[in-house]
Design a protein that fits this description.
The protein has about 350 residues and is of the alpha/beta class. The chain is built from 14 helices and 12 strands. The chain folds into 2 domains: about 5-180, NAD(P)-binding Rossmann-like Domain (Rossmann fold, 3-Layer(aba) Sandwich); about 185-340, N-(1-d-carboxylethyl)-l-norvaline Dehydrogenase, domain 2. The chain has helices at about 15-20, 35-40, 80-90, 110-120, 160-165, 180-200, 205-210, 215-230, 250, 255-260, 275-280, 295-300, 310-320, 335-340, and strands at about 5-10, 30, 45-50, 55, 65, 75-80, 100-105, 125-130, 135, 140-145, 150-155, 175-180. Its EC number is 1.1.1.169.
Length: about 350
């Protein structure tokens, strides 16, 4: 029987990084935009903040601008953003064979459920990328700028052969963590991703944002609302960082001098790194705000929990999506943002 192949559907930052890691030990094909396919074909370096690195170069035949007419016996790592997910699933419908496995790697909530709706009969697993990745054009590097593992759903009936094939994502640059509580992990990752919107709004590097107590207080308020929702739904959040999920808001509210001392791991970030939502705003693209802060507000409403701060942040980001001045706006400090959100 033929070996499983790996396909990266959506070869951007995360897809390029995952594919480069998988490509260290297995054959992988990339489906994506021409600019990313060109970078991968020219060769990239994968690095992390701790100084680890490895090289990867895709062959010309592994770089595809369109889906093949048939995809069989493959692990399809679905790494498009939520905003492009429905379109990709529609394109996959006529070409995917029943012996394929799809791994949904989207932030936020609902991607796996949507994939099951569009691809009935296909095995769908959820994967969660627990780190941030940025592209350094001058160095031709995909840089993992924060700590975090790759969390992968572990069903009870997963065959040993598939476990081995999926383990190709395991590498010194990205540790693999098999999880039976993948829904809880998704909520815990969402808690961390709530800061993406604040980074996009204040127009500052992530590290600079975290050194601003006002910004941290806003992020803490967003997290408080999420924790209220998960408590109402009886979801126990796992520990994805050195600080347990329920204590993160308190840590973020600490005075600057104490935060720097007790939460130094949060500051192990490239000084210029920014969230993907910030990059989307700068490029004039629709953001994933509905799947992050918007999802918290929506799930809160379903659980009878008011989430006014997440709702207000969602509205604010949507207004920036349609602003002609977004690319030229000045940075915003945390106290000014608190005033806008009526947190004072």
């Amino acid at each position: 029987m033929a070996q499983y192949q790996h396909v990266i559907a959506g070869s951007g930052l995360i897809g390029g990084f995952l594919g480069g890691i998988i490509g260290q030990s297995a054959r992988v094909s990339f489906i994506g935009r021409p600019n990313w396919l060109g970078r991968l074909a020219e060769g990239v370096t994968l690095t992390d903040y701790a100084g680890n690195e490895t090289a990867y170069k895709a062959s010309a035949e592994e770089c595809l601008s369109e889906l093949p007419t048939k995809i069989e016996r493959s692990i399809i790592w679905l790494t498009v953003k939520n905003t492009a997910l429905e379109e990709m699933l529609t394109r996959l419908q006529p070409v995917i064979a029943p012996d394929c496995i799809v791994v949904c790697c989207q932030n936020g909530l609902g991607a796996a459920a949507l994939a099951r709706k569009y691809l009935p009969g296909i095995r769908i697993l959820q994967g969660i990328v627990g780190c941030n990745v940025v592209w350094n054009e001058s160095l031709k590097q995909l840089q993992k700028t924060t700590e975090g593992e790759f969390y992968l759903e572990q069903p009870e009936d997963l065959a040993p052969e598939l476990t081995k094939v999926l383990s190709a994502v395991q590498h010194k640059l990205l540790m693999l963590s098999w999880r039976k509580d993948i829904e809880a992990v998704a909520w815990a990752k969402l808690q961390l991703n709530l800061a993406n919107s604040i980074n996009a709004i204040v127009n500052q590097p992530v590290r600079t944002m975290l050194l601003d107590r006002g910004c941290r207080q806003v992020i803490a308020a967003l997290m408080d609302e999420l924790l209220a929702v998960t408590a109402a739904r009886h979801i126990r959040l796992p520990k994805l960082t050195r600080v347990p999920a329920r204590y993160l808001p308190a840590v973020l509210r600490l005075p600057d001098w104490l935060f720097k001392r007790l939460a130094s791991a949060m500051l192990h970030i490239e000084p210029t790194a920014r969230s993907s939502m910030w990059w989307d705003l700068q490029a004039g693209r629709v953001t994933e705000i509905d799947y992050l802060n918007g999802a918290v507000a929506e799930q809160g409403a379903l659980s009878g929990i008011a989430c006014p701060i997440n709702k207000s942040v969602t509205v604010l980001v949507k207004s920036l999506e349609t602003s002609a001045l977004v690319a030229t706006r000045r940075p915003l400090d945390g106290n000014s943002l608190k005033f806008q959100l009526h947190l004072e």
